[in-house]
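seq as requested:
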Amino acid sequence: MLLSVVVQAQSGKALLYESSEFVWCGLDYSHVKCIGRDGFNEPYEVKHKYFDAWNELVLAEADKYDLQEAYYKSRQITDLSVVDRRNDIPDVDKLVINDSYQFEKGKLQEIIKDYDLEKSDEGLGLVYVVESLNKYRQTAVIYVVFFDIASKEILWNKSYTTDARGFGFRNYWARTIYNTMNESGEDFKADQKPYKRDK
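struct tokens:
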């Protein structure tokens, strides 16, 4: 049993750090909360317009949102099929709140278990799971999650709280995506160095 666990851990790290390609699954807003009613006057529009708009922006401005460079990968496959479906989950009437909010324990694994991709059934997946957009604090909380597509095991995840900034609603919150990519990229590279050194 112990040997099996060790082998799985090693293979997981190999997939995470040695894989030259990954599948970008997009921005998952399925369990997001928008905090501060004054900042989210049109929750229907947030769900039905901006969830798509933010996903499209990452692809349209790929030179700026360079995920391959951020995580030292040479090939990106894009498959938004799961987030396209999952981003329809939020109840518009419950999307905006005034209280604090965070995922309960086990929520990330519950989300990733639902990731049946259309383009890949194995390999390394990457998704940004958005926990909250907080107008009071002018920040977003986003989880960066790398996972094994075949087993749906989470291989690497970290939560990032980054500042919103910019002109217009779309760009204001898009800044948090950009900041999350940059910060997580630095952390990923730092975590990768000991693995590469020990190989």
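Residues 1-10 have pLDDT under 50 and may be disordered.
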